[in-house]
């Protein structure tokens, strides 16, 4: 019989208020965006996607419960959050106690403010359990260390030999760290800045495994800005396979009183004839996105013979194409649609269309263009027999 795999819980402490970031705290740093995504969400995802981690619990401040729900919307597998305390030490303890009803074998305690934690570092911690019940990641100090008096006069140069900068995760056998935190509180000790120190104080031997200089903590406004730029640059370099797709669609008029273009209903003297809502703009865009992916066209994904698409809101076609982009690990960078119509006038509805398309695609408004032209009374469009649309979509996919 094989031994069961140890149950490893992750506690992500996110109950701080981020005072060192400076300015007025409209939103604590863990809920601020880096690379367009809340910092905390990124941190949590690193643990949620690690195959050895069996549960992930965030410790939050009750004042920011709503921000937390927004930040984690759609993340699968998270345990219910628990409320933290006045200090990091109190928050960690709250997280540990929240697991007491169904105790894990080991616990990884991590700062929400360290969003660059990698699976490789988590793996090194887990390997460390073979040698010790208490493991922390740390990086060897590279700068010369100076100690000063209160007037900032150097009083000592401290050898950096065997000196380490402690990071998180800090990982322990669950019962060991639970008992150590409980003892610390009982002894009136509330001054520990990390959990290794709590375990050391309680008499445990804590082992260091090599951390990652990139596993930095976002503490100051400079750090937050640097983290944002780092994520954006990483995404930019990762998504270096840039594709441009085109799409074209046309629908004829039939008796009616409104057309749907760019997901906006526009009163008109006729409607567009089609199996779905006949939104030529969104159909052309769907084809442009699928074209960039090299994944067929709207008809191959949504056969017109299928009755379920009769009268359908064409937003679902675009959403499907955007999901295909996400499934390939990429993003939609830009969508540009030209409507070719003698009437109705598109100008008054352009901004509404851009807003709808941006929302449907999950991209910002500045990444969506809607343009229009008449066909100078030439051809079927010129004879007001229908409306045509041309779309271009730029898609970025992982290069490797
Ligand atoms: N009462 C507290 C204080 C801190 N933390 C968490 O502990 C981690 C490390 O703390 P730090 O970077 O110092 O965060 P803040 O306390 O929020 O920042 P500051 O010290 O600048 O106020 C952060 O993820 C923070 O949210 C916590 O859960 N509960
Ligand atoms: C735990 C820690 O990340 C180790 O470096 C750090 O001590 C937490 O930050 P704080 O500023 O001490 O709360």
Compact overview of the structure:
The chain is 31% helix and 28% strand. With 400 residues, the protein is an alpha/beta fold. It folds into two domains: 8-236, Alpha-Beta Complex (Spore Coat Polysaccharide Biosynthesis Protein SpsA, Chain A), CATH 3.90.550; 240-397, 60s Ribosomal Protein L30, Chain: A (2-Layer Sandwich), CATH 3.30.1330.
Relevant terms:
18 strands, Spore Coat Polysaccharide Biosynthesis Protein SpsA, Chain A, 5-stranded mixed β-sheet, binds the ligand C[C@](O)(CO)[C@H](O)COP(=O)(O)O, alpha/beta, binds cytidine-5'-triphosphate, 60s Ribosomal Protein L30, Chain: A, 12 helices, 400 residues, 7-stranded mixed β-sheet
Explain what this protein looks like in three dimensions:
Residues 243-400 are annotated as: 2-C-methyl-D-erythritol 2,4-cyclodiphosphate synthase. Belongs to the IspF family. 4-CDP-2-C-methyl-D-erythritol 2-phosphate binds at residues 249-251, 275-276, 297-299, 373-376, 380, 383. Residues 242-395 form the 2-C-methyl-D-erythritol 2,4-cyclodiphosphate synthase domain. Its cofactor is a divalent metal cation. The strands form five sheets. A seven-stranded mixed sheet has the order 5-4-1-6-10-7-11, sandwiched between helices. Strands 15-12-18-16-17 form a five-stranded mixed sheet. A two-stranded antiparallel sheet has the order 2-3. The longest helix has 18 residues, at 221-238. With 400 residues, the chain is of the alpha/beta class. The model has no long low-confidence stretch (mean pLDDT 96). The chain has twelve helices and 18 strands. Helices cover 31% and strands 28% of the residues. It is elongated. The protein has helices at 39-48, 65-72, 88-98, 119-128, 174-186, 195-201, 221-238, 280-293, 298-301, 315-327, 350-361, 379-382; strands at 8-14, 33-34, 37-38, 53-60, 82-83, 106-111, 134-140, 145-148, 154-158, 164-173, 207-210, 241-255, 258-261, 264-267, 270-272, 331-340, 368-373, 386-397. It has two domains: 8-236, Spore Coat Polysaccharide Biosynthesis Protein SpsA, Chain A, CATH 3.90.550.10; 240-397, 2-Layer Sandwich (60s Ribosomal Protein L30, Chain: A).
């Amino acid at each position: 019989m094989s031994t069961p795999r140890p149950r490893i819980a992750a506690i992500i402490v996110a109950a701080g208020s981020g005072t060192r970031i400076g300015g007025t705290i409209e939103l604590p740093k863990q809920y601020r965006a880096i690379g367009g995504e809340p910092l905390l969400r990124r941190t949590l995802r690193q643990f949620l996607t690690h195959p050895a981690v069996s549960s992930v619990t965030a410790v939050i401040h009750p004042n920011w419960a709503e921000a937390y729900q927004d930040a984690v919307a759609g993340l699968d597998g998270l345990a219910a959050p628990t409320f933290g305390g006045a200090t990091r030490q109190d928050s960690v303890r709250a997280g540990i106690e929240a697991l007491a009803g169904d105790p894990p074998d080991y616990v990884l305690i991590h700062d929400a403010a360290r969003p660059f934690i990698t699976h490789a570092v988590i793996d090194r911690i887990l390997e460390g359990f073979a040698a010790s019940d208490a493991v922390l990641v740390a990086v060897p100090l590279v700068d010369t260390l100076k100690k000063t008096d209160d007037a900032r006069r150097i009083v000592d140069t401290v050898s950096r030999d065997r000196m380490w900068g402690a990071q998180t995760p800090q990982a322990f056998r669950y019962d060991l760290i639970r008992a150590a935190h409980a003892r610390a509180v009982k002894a009136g000790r509330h001054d520990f800045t990390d959990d290794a120190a709590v375990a050391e104080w309680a008499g445990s031997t804590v082992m260091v495994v090599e951390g990652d200089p990139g596993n930095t903590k976002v503490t100051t406004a400079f750090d937050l800005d640097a983290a944002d730029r780092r994520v954006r640059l990483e995404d930019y370099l990762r998504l270096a396979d840039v594709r441009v797709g085109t799409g074209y669609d046309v629908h004829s008029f039939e008796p009616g009183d409104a057309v749907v273009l760019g997901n906006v209903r526009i009163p008109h003297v006729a409607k567009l004839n089609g199996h779905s809502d006949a939104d030529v703009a969104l159909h052309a865009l769907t084809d442009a996105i699928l074209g960039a992916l090299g994944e067929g066209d709207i008809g191959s994904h949504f056969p017109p013979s299928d009755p379920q698409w009769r009268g359908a809101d064409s937003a679902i076609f675009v959403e499907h194409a955007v999901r295909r982009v996400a499934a390939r690990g990429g993003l939609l960078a830009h969508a540009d649609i030209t409507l070719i119509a003698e009437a109705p006038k598109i100008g008054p509805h352009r901004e509404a269309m851009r807003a709808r398309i941006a929302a449907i695609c999950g991209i910002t408004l500045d990444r969506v263009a809607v343009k229009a032209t008449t066909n100078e009374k030439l051809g079927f469009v010129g004879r007001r027999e229908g409306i045509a649309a041309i779309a271009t979509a730029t898609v970025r996919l992982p290069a490797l």
